[in-house]
Amino acid sequence: MSMRLRDVVQNAGVSPEFSVDPAMLDAISPSGDRGGIVLGSGLKGEPLTVSALRSAPTRIVLVGGLYLARQVAMRAMAVGAWVVVATGRPAAWQVLSQAAGTRDGRSSPLVQIRRLSPVELPRPSEDAPLLVVTDGGPTPQDLFPPRSPWQTTVYVLPYLHPQAGATANAADLVLMQRLPAGQAELAARIWRLPPQMMRQLTTLKDDQVVALGRNLWRPLRLVTTQKEQQLLGPVRRGD
Q1: More confident position, 160 or 2
Q2: Superfamily of domain 32-117+125-231
């Protein structure tokens, strides 16, 4: 894993424009630049932002409910990304279409809801990065592996499954909500977590997430904007 979570000196919420710092890898450090996806707030209330849309193919695994997955997708849209969702439950994702509209000067919608089958993707670029969400259950097919810069593929896992170990290990960043004891034990085996980290996964509150990466273990609290709350409802662990 190689993803840097950054403390951003700005109000908690969605950055109004897209920018990315290619040097954002491999460490946690403060940053004053704008852009990136705000994930939530730290233990002291500081906003935490991840540059998930970057000049390298990127994989993110989300272990948890639809709320978290849809919030990440909406925040990618807010900073200028195209979003393609491949899912077996399209009705659950229509809220993104309600929020998206169209990109200025382009007829294609900012968000596309697709079936779980290969399709031609928009070509990503620095000005129009691409977030592909694969919502295919606990053992997702790798239909849209990230193969080019400015493409990020997010795998939505409702729970950890032993057969998802390869997908999980290939991720640059993992975001985990609260896990039952058995799944926390599986997470400890997959990522070689010490007992105290394994126990922490079982005690997270509904609005808490752990960001896991190489040399990264960062608990954070999800923060919902007023618009997100209107579309998604209150922060929650489940779907």
Answers
A1: 160
A2: P-loop containing nucleotide triphosphate hydrolases (3.40.50.300)
Q: What is the DSSP letter of 48?
A: E
Tokens describing residue 187: 């997470």
Q: Where are the domains of the chain?
A: 32-117+125-231
Question: CA-CA distances (angstroms) from residue 182 to 123, 187, 211?
Answer: 40, 9, 20
User: Whole-structure pTM over 0.70, yes or no?
Assistant: yes
> Three-state secondary structure along 121-167?
CCCCCCCCCEEEEEECCCCCCCCCCCCCCCEEEEEEECCCCHHHHHH
Mean pLDDT rounded to a whole number for the chain: 82
Q: What is the pLDDT of residues 146-172, one digit of tens each?
A: 999 999 999 999 999 999 989 998 999
Q: What does the alpha-carbon distance between residue 173 and residue 179 come to, in Å, rounded to a whole number?
A: 17
